[in-house]
Amino acid sequence: MRVIGSLGIALCIGALALANVGAHAQSRGKQAAQTEFEEEVVPQRYAANPEVDAFINDIVARDGFDRNELQKVFSRVVFSQTAARLAAPPASPGQKNWTNYEKRFLDNTRINGGVRFWNQNATALSRASKEYGVPEEIIVAIIGVETIYGRNMGNFRTIDALTTLAFDYPPARNRSERMALFRKELENLLLYARERGVDPFSIYGSYAGAIGIPQFMPSSIRNFAVDYSGDGKINLTTDVADAIGSVANFLKQHGWQPGQPVVWNIAADRGSQGLAEAGADGQPEPHWKLGDFIKAGMLMNEPRLDVGSALDTPVLIVDLPTPGQATQYRMGLTNFYVLTRYNRSFFYAMSVYDLADAIKAARAP
């Protein structure tokens, strides 16, 4: 699940959603009660809690909430040990493995499912692509990576998950920053519920608070979700058109460049690969120019690219390591950077791109 918006994530992003979630939330609430998988919840942990009370005071002053009502809300919120456990960094971080990561997403389930999803929603996808300038296959691939086209949207009660991570984030190097971000998402969840007139306890999603088919965080719901079906409501959980339009709008608002490439392939010769390795500094925003590498002797494996006219193009180097193998390198452009706004991971953005290509090829006549 992806953290998008202020968390970077579309989590997501994507990224990282659902206005008028009431109908969805009622049915999913019953489902969650039947398929509960949290091994421990702690009630009353956030009642008369000094940190929570300070948070309540802040958003009462900033957003005009009723203090008594919020105190009642947090007296009902429960600590989710599962959310805290899943958010914890691994005790011994493993090596990044691009080959294994991509296998999780570039599989028949997502490719064939993407073709079906595209065929079933061709009208909305075509319209969104024309309106927002984002290729249909990119929209489909993001939804495929995030939830397998709505199949896996999460069974966590969102207010429990966000409150747990806002006030009981597990030990981590950046714990205070993460808690601050989750408190902002918790505030946005409460604002969203108030704006849409829904019960915040009726909203379900991922352990990190991402909601709906595209796994939008509450801040992204409020800033980027759209009513694309035209029914006067935004519902990212059961309205596929709204999910499609919202993903496209998210990418457009984060700077998607219509008609421009996402990545370029670098030649496989040792010199070009060495230059790619030297330029792979992990920064997701394009901060080199293509000409910087061409002048140093890099060759490109892009037959249709007019290198001479593209020397000023802003680029970054995408490194994709796999233990025991040579690291793969690609050259990312602005649209690659936009994909990382949905989820701040080179692996994520590259998987979306490769899955999009695979779905488009599988759908071709």
From TrEMBL:
One of its GO terms (molecular function) is peptidoglycan lytic transglycosylase activity. Residues 49-357 form the Transglycosylase SLT domain. The active site is at E146. The keyword Kinase does not apply. This is Lytic murein transglycosylase B. It comes from Pandoraea anhela. It comes from the Bacteria. One of its GO terms (biological process) is peptidoglycan catabolic process. Residues 1-25 form the signal peptide. The keyword Transcription does not apply. InterPro entries: Lysozyme-like_dom_sf (IPR023346), Lytic_transglycosylase_MltB (IPR011757), MltB-like (IPR043426), SLT_2 (IPR031304). Keywords: Signal. CDD domains: Slt35-like (cd13399). Coiled coil: none annotated. Gene3D superfamilies: 1.10.530.10, Bacterial muramidase (1.10.8.350).
